[in-house]
Amino acid sequence: MMECYSRTWGGDGNGLAACSHSWEIAKPFWPLLRALDADHWLAFQRTQRGLRLADPAAYDTLLTNELATLTAKHGWTESEARRLLESDDYLSGPQDAWLVPTVLDQRIRHWLAPLASAQVAIRGRYKADEPPPSGLVDMCQLTYRPDQMTVLDVGRWPLSVQLLVAARTGIVSPSHRAQLEEGGSFAQQVISVKDDDLSQVLELAWTGQVDPIFRWMGTEGAPRDSEFTAEGFLTGTPLAQSRLGCSWFTKWRPGLDKEPVVVICGDSAEDFCYAFTRQRVVGNTYWLPNRTWACRQAWRDPSPNPDTGPLHVLANAEREPAHLVVIAHINDQ
Questions:
Q1: Residues 315/207, Cβ–Cβ less than 8 Å
Q2: pTM exceeds cut of 0.85
Q3: Average pLDDT over the chain, rounded to whole?
Q4: Which one of 3, 77, 109, 140 is least enclosed by Cβ atoms within 10 Å?
Q5: Number of C-alpha atoms within 13 angstroms, CB side, residue 240?
């Protein structure tokens, strides 16, 4: 979805709600979704192309099995079978059934009143490495196109770290990049995140900035320069560029400036999606997928110091936070 949002104009302002296999949404999401007040509801559709991007090994295994089936069952040659299986239409085809239950559809329309038809509330599908659904603007179709885009390469780190970074910077899919390059003047800057960079990159992903005084100290105690500390570093990232020409408004209400800093601890899709959406609705919300791993690996401290660990950084990410609230596993609330 970060790749899809990066290609959708205004995508950085969108929210996410995780559904179970039976299309159920956890209770804590509903008040948050009402506050988000989305105009359009769409769902992510798993496809063969998406599998090829997300898990190349699994895709290769599936492709090999399907090639063998087609050649044995229909007598096709391998090249004929491959031509079908690697065609755009086949790669865009759904991997699973996509039928939204009536109960969920009615609840969305009755309680959230999106700009939908009287027949269906979820009006389209996002698919990996494809333009956004009808009615939404493709970044590749805008008159203005950026000359450069900055992406962070975190492929060597766990998926939780990749997702944290992607939620802040976005992701560029192969076809998105290819369309931008067609203009002739586009350049993509790829920055590899090394071991020494991880703690700073996590701080950037959580807070949107890196403290140049306390977090960037070299071995002799002198500050060391880095691209991550540069002013406006995030403006060149894909998700930030999806805001081109857009304005960001926060609905004011009494006590908004007193909202607590909320840290969601947990590895589930619900945990990530809730933190992602609350950050966009209220702010001061951070996803901590695994406290033990983050403390010991990102801060290199076998006995994490509460004054320098992730919770300290998150609690001080905003000026004068009223409270720090830690929620473990949003689906259990």
A1: no
A2: no
A3: 81
A4: 77
A5: 16
